[in-house]
């Protein structure tokens, strides 16, 4: 069963009709229904394409949070071999909201850091819905330091509503942990590539997304705060989230225009969850191309390019 | 008494003893189940069924890790012996003599240079059978020599830790091995050579508080006791029962100190894979094929 979002209702109805006709067709009396099915299918596909070509920022937010949207581990399974997750911050604990380790990407050894939201109740709890505590960021920073020492590129997959807002996280220095992780990104003498695969939530995202190249999937979002959060602060009314989503410019298209990100990776029609395999291949190709762009550069040059890129943000928009 | 009873008979006895080893059966410390020793040996000293990881000596360990079970022993330097002329219930010198006779080792370390899935690697193993794997001057020198060999040959350095801690009989000289080994770890870091630590049962005391906790990556065998102060000391000090699983591998992983708990059967492949990745070596031809598209290997416990 495919989960449909509210705004997908017209498409859902068409697709339900297609399924109904198919079931009828299987009970004999094929020809006439066959034509109908083909016609309806084409109509459903056109409606879906149309719908997804014109998603509002709020709709994109919903797609980015879609329960069936491929998560980090799906990308890891498809794009990586020899994936060896490593645990712990060597200080307090292990945080599975951020997974990190070494692997091979298209044959070459890399360090991989990914925020994982989980796919069912059990894994969502284990990964704390992708909201990391200080231990997660400290693990990320520890592995980036290792990657730097051994000259391994760092790939990060961003998908978080934000860093975990909790008493324990504050007690153990959530802010400092995020700051150090961002610093570790900037200190990297190896290339780093970030890909926003779902939600890029605030400091929780930037801590692992301060990269030489930042890519976003077509319908992912990236912002300083969730639309709900912004609505409750600025409008004092969380139900104004749709307005906040539009006002904050959180879509990949907006961010590319601002020069915040470097590239958009197109999604299959109807979103990544409708063609996960195709999505992974495109993401893999985009990451490979970005790595190729940065190949052969000296550590100092990589650091300088990264620093200059972030220094320049905001200076060029007029 | 004549030469027959004094010389011939004991020899005949030892001959027989070889044919019928005393410990034909091994008792599982977890379940009490009796297992045929040969089965345990064939299973890398892991009890089939309960998966309890028994201790291995340094030779068994090197055999398990290096390709075809062969390696070159790295010659270990001599260290001053018994600087304090120490004596408790027994002379330290006698204890050393006994340990040497029992293990065939000079001290609690064995260092090998060989191939790990084809890649040259230096592996150092602490032997718990030699005075509890304790860290004294000779062990310190052995660690330094192991690290130097890795630096010379530009290979990864893999350490199997197993130790009760510092060697009390060498007093302050033992304590000084903590900074000395740390210097060696820093040299490996500066040379950008991987330093992998495998924590085995038990790793405690000054060893944990120095080179065993400074690895680029920390792997551990399931159920290994790893800590600074031993559980008995803690219990006696705080007069409280410790929670189950305290200071075991899995507990350390949950508390951020260990990267992965790895079953012994996966240990060689895991160490080899990580070394290759950190050394930026290509996949070995043979391993490249079945790896692609396969689900990630179960490294995390």
UniProtKB/TrEMBL annotation, chain A:
Keywords, comma-separated and alphabetical: ATP-binding, Cytoplasm, Fatty acid biosynthesis, Fatty acid metabolism, Lipid biosynthesis, Lipid metabolism, Nucleotide-binding, Transferase
InterPro entries, sorted: Acetyl_CoA_COase_a_su, ClpP/crotonase-like_dom_sf, COA_CT_C
Catalytic activity: N(6)-carboxybiotinyl-L-lysyl-[protein] + acetyl-CoA = N(6)-biotinyl-L-lysyl-[protein] + malonyl-CoA
Gene3D superfamilies documented for this protein: 2-enoyl-CoA Hydratase, Chain A, domain 1
CoA carboxyltransferase C-terminal domain sequence ranges: 39-293
Subcellular location: Cytoplasm
Family per record: Belongs to the AccA family.
Function: Component of the acetyl coenzyme A carboxylase (ACC) complex. First, biotin carboxylase catalyzes the carboxylation of biotin on its carrier protein (BCCP) and then the CO(2) group is transferred by the carboxyltransferase to acetyl-CoA to form malonyl-CoA.
Oligomer and partners: Acetyl-CoA carboxylase is a heterohexamer composed of biotin carboxyl carrier protein (AccB), biotin carboxylase (AccC) and two subunits each of ACCase subunit alpha (AccA) and ACCase subunit beta (AccD).
Name of this chain's protein: Acetyl-coenzyme A carboxylase carboxyl transferase subunit alpha
Protein species of origin: Enterovirga rhinocerotis
Automatic annotation (TrEMBL), chain B:
Enzyme class, spelled out: transferase
UniProt-recorded Gene Ontology molecular function terms: acetyl-CoA carboxylase activity; ATP binding; carboxyl- or carbamoyltransferase activity
HAMAP family the record matches: AcetylCoA_CT_beta
NCBIfam families according to UniProt: accD (TIGR00515)
Gene name as annotated: accD
GO cellular component terms given for this protein: acetate CoA-transferase complex
Catalytic activity as recorded in UniProt: N(6)-carboxybiotinyl-L-lysyl-[protein] + acetyl-CoA = N(6)-biotinyl-L-lysyl-[protein] + malonyl-CoA
PANTHER family in UniProt: ACETYL-COENZYME A CARBOXYLASE CARBOXYL TRANSFERASE SUBUNIT BETA, CHLOROPLASTIC
EC number: 2.1.3.15
The species this protein was found in: Enterovirga rhinocerotis
Pathway involvement of the protein, from the record: Lipid metabolism; malonyl-CoA biosynthesis; malonyl-CoA from acetyl-CoA: step 1/1
Name of this protein: Acetyl-coenzyme A carboxylase carboxyl transferase subunit beta
């Amino acid at each position: 069963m495919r989960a449909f979002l509210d705004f997908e209702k017209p498409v859902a109805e068409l697709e339900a009709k297609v399924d109904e006709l198919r079931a009828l067709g299987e009970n004999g009396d094929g020809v006439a229904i066959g034509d109908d099915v083909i016609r309806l299918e084409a109509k459903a596909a056109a409606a879906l394409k149309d719908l997804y070509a014109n998603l509002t920022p709020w709709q994109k937010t919903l797609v980015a949070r879609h329960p069936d949207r491929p998560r980090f581990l799906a990308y890891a399974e498809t794009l990586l071999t020899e994936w060896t997750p490593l645990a712990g911050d060597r200080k307090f604990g292990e945080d599975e909201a951020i997974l990190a380790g070494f692997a091979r990407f298209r044959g070459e050894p890399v360090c991989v850091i990914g925020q994982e939201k989980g796919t069912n109740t059990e894994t969502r709890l284990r990964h704390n819905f992708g909201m990391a505590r200080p231990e997660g960021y400290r693990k990320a920073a520890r592995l980036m330091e290792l990657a730097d020492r051994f000259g391994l590129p760092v790939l990060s997959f961003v998908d978080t509503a934000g860093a975990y807002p909790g008493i324990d996280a504050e007690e153990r220095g959530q802010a400092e942990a995020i700051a150090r992780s961002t610093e570790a990104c900037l200190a990297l003498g190896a290339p780093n590539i970030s890909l926003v695969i779902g939600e890029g939530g605030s400091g929780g995202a930037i801590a692992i997304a301060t990269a030489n190249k930042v890519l976003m999937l077509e319908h992912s979002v990236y912002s300083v705060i969730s639309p709900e959060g912004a609505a409750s602060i600025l409008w004092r009314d969380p139900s104004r989230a749709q307005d906040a989503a539009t006002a904050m410019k959180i879509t990949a298209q907006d961010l590319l225009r601002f020069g915040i990100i470097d590239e958009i990776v197109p999604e299959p029609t109807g979103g990544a969850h409708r063609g996960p395999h195709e999505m992974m291949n495109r993401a893999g190709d985009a990451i490979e191309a970005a790595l190729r762009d940065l190949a052969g550069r000296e550590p100092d040059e990589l650091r300088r390019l990264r620093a200059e890129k972030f220094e320049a943000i905001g200076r060029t928009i007029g | 008494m004549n030469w027959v009873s004094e010389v011939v008979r004991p020899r005949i006895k030892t001959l027989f003893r070889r044919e019928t080893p005393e410990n034909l059966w091994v008792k599982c410390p977890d379940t009490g189940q009796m297992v045929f020793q040969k089965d345990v040996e064939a299973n890398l000293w892991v009890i089939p069924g309960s998966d309890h990881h028994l201790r291995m000596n340094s030779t068994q360990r090197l055999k398990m890790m290096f390709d075809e079970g062969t390696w070159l022993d790295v010659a270990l330097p001599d260290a001053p012996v018994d600087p304090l002329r120490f004596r408790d219930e027994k002379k330290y010198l006698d204890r050393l003599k006994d340990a040497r006779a029992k293990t065939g080792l000079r001290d609690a370390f064995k260092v090998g240079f060989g191939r790990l899935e084809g890649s040259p690697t230096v592996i150092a193993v602490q032997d718990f059978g030699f005075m509890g794997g304790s860290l004294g001057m000779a062990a310190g020198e052995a660690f330094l020599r192991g690290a130097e060999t890795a630096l010379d040959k530009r290979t990864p350095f893999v350490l199997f830790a197993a130790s009760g801690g510092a060697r009390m009989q060498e007093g302050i000289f033992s304590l000084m091995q903590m900074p000395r080994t740390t210097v060696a770890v820093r040299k490996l870091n500066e040379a950008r050579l991987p330093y992998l630590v495998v924590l085995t049962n038990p790793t405690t005391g000054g060893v944990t508080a120095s080179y065993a906790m400074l690895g680029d990556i920390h792997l551990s065998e399931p159920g290994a006791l790893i800590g600074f102060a031993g559980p008995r000391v803690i219990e006696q000090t705080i007069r409280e029962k410790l929670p189950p699983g305290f200071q075991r591998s899995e507990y350390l992983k949950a508390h951020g100190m260990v990267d992965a708990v790895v079953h012994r059967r996966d240990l060689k492949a895991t160490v080899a894979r990580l070394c290759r990745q950190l050394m930026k070596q290509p996949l070995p031809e043979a391993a490249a094929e079945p790896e692609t598209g396969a689900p990630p290997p179960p490294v995390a416990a």
